[in-house]
Amino acid sequence: MLFEPPRPRNDEERVLPLINVVFLLLIFFMLAGRLATSDPFEIAPPRSASEGPAETGDLLVLVGADGELALDGARVEEAALRAAVAERLAGDAEAQVRLKADGRAEATAVVAVMELLREAGVERLRLLTVPGGGDVGR
User: Fold this and answer.
1) What does the pLDDT read at residue 53?
2) In 3-state terms, what secondary structure has residue 130?
3) Which residues 6+ apart lie within 8 Å of 1 measured at CB?
4) Nearest by Cα to 132 from 68, 46, 23, 71
5) Which H/E stretch holds residue 119?
6) Which residue has the higher pLDDT, 50 or 41?
7) Which pLDDT score is estimated for 137?
8) Which of 92, 110, 94, 111 is closest to 102 using CA atoms?
9) 2 vs 53, more confident
10) Cα 56 to the chain's mean position, in Å?
11) Which long-range contacts (CB under 8 A, 24 or more apart) does 18-24 make?
C-alpha cells in the first residue's frame, strides 16, 4: 500500500482556524453582551468638586428632572419605592443605596426622596455626582 506524503502546510492554513474562532467570539459577545442596564429615563447628575472611587451598591434609586423615580432600572411610584427598598433592606442588612438624581431636579424633590428612603430603613445613602464641578462659586 502506497500513501502519499503529507502535503506541507502553509502559514494561512494554520492561522485560519484562530481567525474563525476570534470572529465567532466577537459576534457572540456583540449579540449577547450588554455591559450595563440603561436608565429608564435621562439623568444628568450634578457635578461635585470632590472625587472618590466609584463603588457599586446593591440598590440604585434614580430621580428624574421631573421627579420620576426608578429603582434598579424600573420606574416606580413613591409608595412602591418605599416598600421595595424596605423589603430589600430587610433581606440584606448590608445592602447599600445609591441615589442618582438629575442635576435639573428640584432640591426639595431630591430631599423628599432621601426622607422617603430614610423612612424605608436606609441608614447609609450615597449621592452620585459627576466629578469636575470645582468652579462653582468662583
Assistant:
1) 53
2) strand
3) none
4) 46
5) helix 107-119
6) 41
7) 44
8) 110
9) 2
10) 8
11) none
